[in-house]
Amino acid sequence: TQLSLYTSPSLPNITLGLPAT
Amino acid sequence: DSLSVHQLAAQGEIAKLDEHICKDDSLLSKQDERGFTPLMWAAAFGEVATVTYLLEKGADPRVLARERESALSLASSGGYTDIVNTLLKHHVEINTYDWNGGTPLLYAVRGNHVKCVESLLGRGADLTMEADSGYSPMDLAVALGHKKVQQAIETHILNL
To answer: Which of A10, B126, B143, B150 is spaced 20 to 30 Å from B21 by Cα?
Structure first.
């Protein structure tokens, strides 16, 4: 049986593709 | 048996994790190639019981990974309020910032995790710290249309 492996933890970018306010 | 302690932590396999750690307690603080500890993996995947187990075994919740990610920022990003509260009880630094300028509060806001936001604010998270993109927690809540988060921040400010 194949082991299910979790992918490495990650944090999202805090951008919206918009200029910062 | 071939799973790393990091994978076991992510999967909440406490019994297997305990076997490994009892044989070699240095595994408790082992960092993977990105600097993540078993505690960070458990926090990132919402494994509350595993987080509690690792802390009881003496895992250090204040360790930062290579890009300054913390167990608290990972739990906040995932919206795991129980883990956030457990880590805060262990006196972790609440306002760590990382490669992204991200703080636990900013990640909780981004993910629309109202209860996490309330916990972090209740414990004194800094509302003025901005991400590298220039967004404060309030800016971000408004920009993303997360109205309940916005309301939680406003209520907190009014109560100050």
So the answer is: A10
